[in-house]
Amino acid sequence: MKVQQILDRKLKSEILAVSPDTSVYSALEALEKHNIGALLVMEGDKLVGIFSERDYARRGILKGKFSRDSFVKDLMTSPVFTVSPQAKIEECLTIMTEKHFRHLPVVDGEKVLGMISSTDLFRSILSQYQNLVSSLEGYISGRPM
Length: 145
Known about the structure:
Elements (H helix, E strand, L loop, with lengths): L2 H7 L7 E2 L5 H11 L3 E6 L2 E7 H8 L11 H4 L13 H11 L3 E6 L2 E7 H24 L4
Parallel strand pairs: 1-2
Antiparallel strand pairs: 2-3, 4-5
């Protein structure tokens, strides 16, 4: 399975992003409002970083930087690792595991298409295995597939 299939399954919605000059507090409010763990950081149409709850915990709270006094550009992860819509799930999992990321932006050239999370990948893998098990059960019991 490829990343594009995951993007197609996700609800079609706007790409959630903030600018580097957004206050950390506002970014945290957006994360909470949308029940997500990370936001893309964009300057116009250009992807410049990712801001996550983890970034705030590690580069903010633990370093004594408070959300109302800090900006996303000071805590975001940059440069950003990205994947293409044609990337395989296995490739994404390898990047996430090796780099300790939970989110990967999906880009086609310079155009940002969305973002996938480790949860998106796990759900996709689980769905594949459930389909395989169902097919095998049907085969074993003699039901048509």
